[in-house]
Amino acid sequence: MQQTEVVGDGKPSADAMQILSFTLGQEEYGVDILRVQEIRSWEPVSRIPNVPGYEKGVVNLRGAIVPIIDLRERFGLGHLDYSPLTVVVVLQAYISGRTRAMGVVVDAVSDVVDIDKSVIQTTPNFGVKVSTEFINGLAAVNDKMVMLLDVDKLLNLESLDGDDEHKE
Q1: What's the CA gap between 77 and 123, in Å, rounded?
Q2: Which of 38, 65, 113, 156 suits 99 as a labelling partner, its CA being 20 to 30 A distant?
Q3: What's the pTM value of the predicted model, to 2 decimals?
């Protein structure tokens, strides 16, 4: 990973945030660093039957069962065989009033970047490979556009696959 970079006017601000950026294919994505629990190398998962293909299975993370989702497949970018660069970013999501840890498979982690919230632009309604409901905004970082993902919406299992677990 490179050094942390500042995007904006370079002055510390209460309106600044740090993001962890990562790649899926040729696209750059980012999540609020405060939602990142840890970054792990890919390891085989315990598969769960009758779930969508992008739900890879679960891993035991120090006694906690953590679901693993392949973001490349979730976003319709196709399957890519896992390599030594493939990582799992374990994120904390707030869903239905509680915190849940979930892992997302990404092609590679890029950087940690400080972004002034004033440089974040709204998401256009076209030209994005990802459903815009998961995107909080866009920010230009090192001449690349980084899509900032909404962790809670992205990892809400009910919206992912129509989970009927909470219905009677």
Answers
A1: 19
A2: 113
A3: 0.81
Whether pLDDT at 60 is above 90: yes
pLDDT tens per residue, range 62-89: 999 999 999 999 888 888 898 877 899 9
Query: Any idea where the domains of the chain sit in the sequence?
Result: 5-161
Q: Per this entry, what is the length of the chain?
A: 168
Given a contact cutoff of 8 angstroms between Cβ atoms, the answer to whether 77 and 138 are in contact is no
Which value, to the nearest 10 degrees, does the dihedral of the CA atoms of residues 62, 39, 57, 51 take? 130
- Structure tokens belonging to residue 153: 């919406």
Q: Please state the φ and ψ torsions of residue 161, each to the nearest 5 degrees.
A: -140, 20
The DSSP-derived string for 83-105 is -TT-EEEEEEEEETTEEEEEEEE
H-type alpha helices, 32-89: 71-74
Element housing 151 (H / E): helix 151-154
Q: How far is CA 164 from the centre of its chain?
A: 24
**Separation of alpha carbons 162 and 61, rounded Å:** 26
- Region for residue 160 given its phi and psi (left: phi exceeds 0; alpha: psi -120 to 50; beta: otherwise): alpha
CATH architecture of 5-161: Beta Barrel (2.40)
Q: Which amino acid is at 139?
A: A
Q: Can you give the C-alpha Rg of the chain in angstroms? A: 16
